[in-house]
């Protein structure tokens, strides 16, 4: 089965959609069909307004859609026709039963595997793309083998995706590496080669790494755990900087020039968000507990705890600077997405900052260039965030204009590093705010000196900009 002609991807989400758009554009000889249970989602993929925002994705989809890229709810047809099937469904953290709050919920993966077993009439290569716990491929293989029809054979591969949201197209076009894990057998090797051949349409062979399935699965969890750990480590240091007068950007620069450490992923922030980091670290913690390695579990758990600490610490600083009370004070929140260039809000630190401020009865005016207002309300009224949805509606105003959000506000809180935030007319904004006017730059993206010149009281992560929070007069620490 070295020659894959038809690919089906189950799950038209943040991973499945962009991945298949790239495969279709780079492999004109392959027909790619992305299927999903959600008719609404498929309709959006077939419309002018795609369900996800990713720079460069619109053009790519327009170029291939209807030629060799199709979006459909005909899951059974997609499976039947395909030589190779990606499983790219969601694997959220379980919110019930055994492993609640830590283990990955594999029900969507299992249901996709059962569907394949139910309808396939020819042999398939089944590729797990979703981030899953170690040994998930084994479970998929088990389900397939226990239900297979005569003459139908399966090879299950692990092919974790390393794309980051906001740069998905670039990451897929020029991946640092492609990782393929498979069974160490002749059939396993053949399947690995078949998938590798797809990637070799645009990825140099040397950048395609093959290994055993479990190593591949564990590598994905480990990569995300290491990345999350770097952010928690620099965020921990940011707290030390604020207490001592050191500047976390200077520290990050200094350590990043050590080639053993490297400069990337050392940006202190309000905390990391996104659908992967927390979920995958918790997965790793749960795995270690199940393997009777409690010390290892505790080690990784602290990465999450430091992230919680950072989000809480930042919100507390806002409250303290605003004279220890934010009750009924209008506070503009700039940014609701978990990072720039995406409309995704999953685990966004902004949600938690808003929660902590709402717990203190602050009135929030929220602006984000890409996040839908219904999404913001859905996140803020989620039972884990608020037990009083009516109160949330009373406290929160959603705006389509940042100047409107800041008007008559006591403070602006930057939660996402959108580029446009750097280009606003901060003099005009200052003139419309209550005084003293505060800016809390949770992403270290603004020109703090300039803002201080205008008259703002500025606070940021990992650096003391002012000594006297109560006069609103800022004095730079040399
Ligand atoms: C370290 C720092 O590297 C150096 O920059 C600083 O100035 C002093 O501390 P050193 O302790 O001399 O230098 O050696 P290093 O190569 O860092 O190794 C330290 C320990 O870590 C050794 O026991 C080494 O075996 C171990 N190590 C290092 C690992 O176990 N794994 C590794 O990947 C690297
Ligand atoms: C991550 C991994 O990067 C990607 O390889 C994997 O496939 C999925 O998970 P993603 O969550 O989309 O990607 O975005 P990423 O750029 O990693 O950012 C995650 C969070 O960390 C964001 O909230 C971001 O703002 C934050 N972050 C990132 C920092 O706070 N500081 C940094 O230096 C880098
Ligand atoms: P990710 O970020 O991992 O891509 P998403 O939540 O964005 O996750 O997308 C996962 C998609 O998978 C959703 O659109 C969901 O409807 C779809 N899905 C989940 N289970 C199945 C299934 N059994 N068959 C088809 N699609 C599924």
UniProtKB/TrEMBL annotation:
Tell me the Pfam families matching this sequence.
UDPG_MGDP_dh, UDPG_MGDP_dh_C, UDPG_MGDP_dh_N
Keyword annotations of the record: NAD, Oxidoreductase
Could you give one GO CC term from the UniProt record? nucleus
Give EC number(s), comma-separated: 1.1.1.22
Q: What class of enzyme is it?
A: oxidoreductase
Query: Binding of NAD(+): at which residues?
Result: 11-16, 36, 41, 89-93, 130-131, 165, 276-279, 346
Pathway entry? Nucleotide-sugar biosynthesis; UDP-alpha-D-glucuronate biosynthesis; UDP-alpha-D-glucuronate from UDP-alpha-D-glucose: step 1/1
Under catalytic activity, the entry for this protein gives: UDP-alpha-D-glucose + 2 NAD(+) + H2O = UDP-alpha-D-glucuronate + 2 NADH + 3 H(+)
List the GO molecular function terms. Answer: NAD binding; UDP-glucose 6-dehydrogenase activity
Reading the lineage from the top rank, the first entry is: Eukaryota
Residue ranges constituting the UDP-glucose/GDP-mannose dehydrogenase C-terminal domain according to the UniProt record? 332-448
In terms of InterPro entries, this protein maps to: 6-PGluconate_DH-like_C_sf (IPR008927), NAD(P)-bd_dom_sf (IPR036291), UDP-Glc/GDP-Man (IPR017476), UDP-Glc/GDP-Man_DH_C (IPR014027), UDP-Glc/GDP-Man_DH_C_sf (IPR036220), UDP-Glc/GDP-Man_DH_dimer (IPR014026), UDP-Glc/GDP-Man_DH_N (IPR001732), UDPglc_DH_euk (IPR028356)
Q: Which GO terms describe its biological process?
A: glycosaminoglycan biosynthetic process
Q: Where is the active site?
A: 276
NCBIfam families, per the entry: NDP-sugDHase
What family is this protein classified in? Answer: Belongs to the UDP-glucose/GDP-mannose dehydrogenase family.
What the protein does comes down to: Involved in the biosynthesis of glycosaminoglycans; hyaluronan, chondroitin sulfate, and heparan sulfate.
Q: What is this protein called?
A: UDP-glucose 6-dehydrogenase
The species this protein was found in? Paralvinella palmiformis
């Amino acid at each position: 089965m070295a020659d894959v002609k038809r690919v089906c991807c189950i799950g038209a989400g943040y991973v499945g959609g962009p991945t298949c758009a790239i495969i279709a554009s780079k492999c004109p000889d392959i027909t790619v069909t992305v299927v999903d249970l959600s008719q609404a989602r498929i309709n959006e993929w077939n419309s002018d307004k795609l369900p996800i925002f990713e720079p460069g994705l619109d053009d790519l989809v327009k170029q291939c859609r209807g030629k060799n890229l199709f979006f459909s709810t005909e899951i059974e047809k997609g499976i039947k026709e395909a030589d190779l099937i990606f499983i790219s469904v969601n694997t959220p953290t379980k919110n019930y039963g055994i492993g609640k709050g830590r283990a990955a919920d594999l029900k969507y993966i299992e249901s996709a595997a059962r569907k394949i077993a139910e309808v396939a009439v020819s042999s398939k290569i089944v590729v797990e793309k979703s981030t899953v716990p170690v040994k998930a491929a084994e479970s998929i293989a088990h389900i397939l083998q226990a239900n297979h029809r005569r003459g139908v054979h399966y090879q299950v591969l692990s092919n974790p995706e390393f794309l980051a949201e906001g740069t998905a197209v670039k990451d897929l076009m020029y991946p640092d590496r492609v990782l393929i894990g498979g069974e160490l057998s002749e059939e396993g090797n053949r399947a690995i080669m078949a998938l590798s051949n797809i990637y070799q349409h645009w990825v140099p062979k040397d950048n395609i790494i093959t290994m055993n399935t479990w190593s591949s699965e564990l590598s994905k969890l480990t990569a995300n755990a290491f990345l999350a750990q770097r952010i928690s480590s620099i965020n921990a240091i940011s707290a030390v900087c604020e207490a001592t007068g050191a500047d976390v950007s200077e520290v990050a620069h200094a350590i990043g020039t050590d080639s053993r450490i490297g400069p990337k992923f050392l940006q202190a922030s309000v905390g990391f968000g996104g659908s992967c980091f927390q979920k995958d670290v918790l997965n790793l913690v749960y795995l270690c507990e199940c393997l009777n390695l409690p010390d290892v579990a505790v080690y990784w758990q602290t990465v999450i705890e430091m992230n919680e600490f950072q989000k809480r610490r930042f919100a507390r600083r806002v409250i303290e600077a605003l004279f220890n009370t934010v009750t009924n004070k209008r506070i503009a929140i700039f940014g609701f997405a978990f990072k720039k260039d995406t409309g995704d809000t999953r685990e966004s630190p902004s949600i938690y900052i808003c929660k902590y401020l709402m717990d203190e009865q602050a009135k929030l005016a929220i602006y984000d260039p890409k996040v839908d207002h219904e999404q913001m309300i859905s996140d803020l009224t989620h039972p884990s965030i608020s037990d009083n949805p009516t109160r949330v509606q009373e406290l929160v105003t959603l705006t389509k204009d940042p100047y409107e959000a800041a008007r008559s506000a006591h403070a602006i809180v930057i939660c996402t590093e959108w580029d446009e935030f750097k280009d606003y007319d901060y003099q005009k904004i200052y003139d419309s705010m209550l005084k003293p006017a505060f800016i809390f730059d949770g992403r270290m993206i603004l020109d703090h000196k300039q803002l201080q010149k205008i008259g703002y009281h500025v606070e940021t992560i990992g650096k003391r900009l002012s000594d006297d929070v109560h006069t609103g007069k800022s004095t730079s620490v040399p």
